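Here is my example:
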Amino acid sequence: MSNYEEIRAEAYKANMLLPKLGLVLFTFGNASAVDREKRVFAIKPSGVPYEDLTPEKMVIVDFDGNTVDGDLRPSSDTKTHAVLYKHWENIGGIVHTHSTYGTAWAQSLKPIPIYGTTHADHTTTAIPCAPPMSDEKIRGNYEYETGYQIIEHLNDLVLSYTEVEMILVGNHAPFTWGKTAEKAVYNSAVVEQLAQMAFLTEQINPQVLPMKDALIKKHFDRKHGVDSYYGQ
């Protein structure tokens, strides 16, 4: 029995949720799950259709992006996942999709504004959009640099990855993360829903303003605050 059976199963489950939730088309996306003790993660193999995936096909990779176990080539985004796992010790899963509305905002180089309480239930800020990287970095180790592009943009905004678990990469698409791979998938679905809602909001009212701070705080705190009362 493989030592990596648990994270392979977790990564497989997360990947299979992506087409089920309408977040990927063909092979446009990937999910991974980490084992912190072994300092490895399981990730979708590159270019393999979702209907052909099995837990055994998940590729085991270390935090430098090197394959540790598996017969297939890992996702082309593997080095981005590796950088994030290496620097962010409190995440257990990462998801990358090219979901329609989230990607449209990323291609527009615009953060997703916080217009309503659905957004405030999940974060108190706009969903950031990291600017495109320099030509030099693009020509270099591109996927590796994408990880730093994400980290550096959150740092520039003085945002914590434990509080903001989603980002758009400019001209590219969304990345999300969470304490588990399942939570990262949840966050990916949230990004797509908020992106669609924000787009429609701006179509209805092009002069719309972000919601006021008091309402943002109220909705976030009732779900995540010290005296939260949402849920059972």
Remarks:
- The chain has a mean pLDDT of 96.
